[in-house]
Every structure is written in C-alpha cells, then in structure tokens.
Amino acid sequence: MLAKAFLLSSFFLPLVVCSLAAPPAPAPEAPADDESPTGFIRAQCGATRYPDLCFTSLSGYASAVQHSPLQLACAAANVTLSRLRSLRAHVSALRSSGTGAGSEAAAALSDCEETLDAAGSLVSRSAGELRGLESLQGSEAAWRVSNAQTWMSAAMTNEDTCADGLESVSGGDVKVDVSGQVRGVKQFTSNALALVNRLAGGR
Which residues, 6+ apart, have CB-to-CB distance to 54 below 8 Å? Predict the structure, then answer.
C-alpha cells in the first residue's frame, strides 16, 4: 500500500518545499505585454479543475511567481503540503480526544492519519523534485518533472484511501467533518498536480 510504502512521518519531518526565491526558469511562458503576475496566475489557474480556489490560494504569491510556471507549481505544492499537515493534525487531535470513539470511527481515523501522513510525504517529495529545476534542461529536467507528477498523483491516491475508509463509518459528526475536509484538501492537491502537469507540457 502506498500509505505504508511512503510513511515517512511528514508531519514531524522538517518542511521540504521548493523555493520561491529562486529566479524564474530560463524559458518561462511569454506573458502578454499588459499581463501582470496576478493576471498570469489567473490564466494558469484556468487550466486547473478548481480555478477559483487555485487563484485565491496562490495570488498572494504573485511577487514571487511573476510569470514563471515553475514558481507557480512550487507555490501550489507548498500550499498543498501546508493544508495536508493541518488536516493530519486535526485528525490526530480527534483521535487523541476520543471523539467518535466507536470502533468503526476509531479505525477509520487511524487509517486516515496514516494515509494523510503518507500523502504529506509524497507532496514533499514532489516539491523536492521541483527545487533547482530552473537550472536544468533536457532529459534531466523532464525526469524530475515526471517524478514530481508521480508523487503528487500518489498523494491524491492516499487522500482517496482516507475518504474511502470514512465511507464505511455509519454517520456521525466525525465522518461529516473529516470527509468534508479531505474533499477540500483533494482540491488543492488536484490543482497542484495540474500545475505540475503544465511543466511537462512546456519542456
């Protein structure tokens, strides 16, 4: 299972992210003459499944992103990892407090905590593949982008596993709460994957 294969305790490891301080990639998409960094982000987010969420969550990074698809994908990965860590902490707190202590709910929360931890590790690995990418070209750059796609996609699989486990719980506030938050995090991950996929198309 991916959750076990990649259980690297992302919640407790140092945050592994791609830098937003690096210069843009050598050949970023050419912006329109009147396109601001914010306009660039809005246009890029139009290719994601949740464009409004994409824009609202990433527009604050406009000064770092400028017109770089790579920096935008980095920002999306960082935001996704932050959201995953927050959700993992929430699930852990629910378990510790004994909320929804029925056997079904307790087992589902335990599995979710594990799979969300694994998802965080995978997003962290995806972000790590993007670090320093602006200095690479050719097959090495393509290989790194492909790895980033693989890890981000695998993170979504782990999120799906958490959601599927909650389906077996018969109702209750915990199920509604965690299921809703998992759906929200999956939207961030989906957007991050879409922006990483755009890097593949541009190389």
Answer: 44, 45, 48, 76, 191, 195
